[in-house]
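Posted in: Protein Modeling Q&A

I'm a second-year student putting together a small comparison for a lab meeting, and my supervisor asked me to include a predicted structure for Low affinity iron permease. I've never done this before, so apologies if this is the wrong subforum. The sequence is pasted below exactly as I got it from our records. If anyone can share the structure token output, I'd also love a short note on what stands out.
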Amino acid sequence: MKTSWFLKFSNALAQVAGHASTFVIAVLLVIVWAVSGPLFHFSDTWQLVINTSTTIVTFLMVFLIQNTQNRDTAAMQIKLDELIRAVDKAHNALLDLEELDEKDLAVFRKRYEKLAQEARDNLRSPSSDIEMPSFPQDDKRDR
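Accepted answer (user: helix_wrangler)
Welcome! Here is the predicted structure, written out as tokens:
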């Protein structure tokens, strides 16, 4: 299975940006800017720097949030992988799906969409003891 350069790059960047030391450096830069205000007599240029700094802080926060999300997602994926592994009828091929590219995921998605459609069709059959609710996508398909 081939991993794209973008996936490798974005994962590495998320790891670097999410380190505590990266955040500390960003905070120190903002503090240096604030302390330098009197030296520049709080000029228009210095005011422009605060606007830029605010953008930078916001930008850095995105990376911190991304790191948290990556870690939480990784933990959840491991837990889901364990559930898939532990359930007898589950397909172990579904382990680590998050590592696949979009093309490979589309193959799995189509297969499961087909299974879901077959299950809904079975519920609509006269022999089904469960009444199937009407879904908006079903209305479009029936027309």
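A couple of things worth pointing out for your meeting: The mean pLDDT is 79. Helices lie at 5-17, 20-35, 44-86, 102-124, 136-142.
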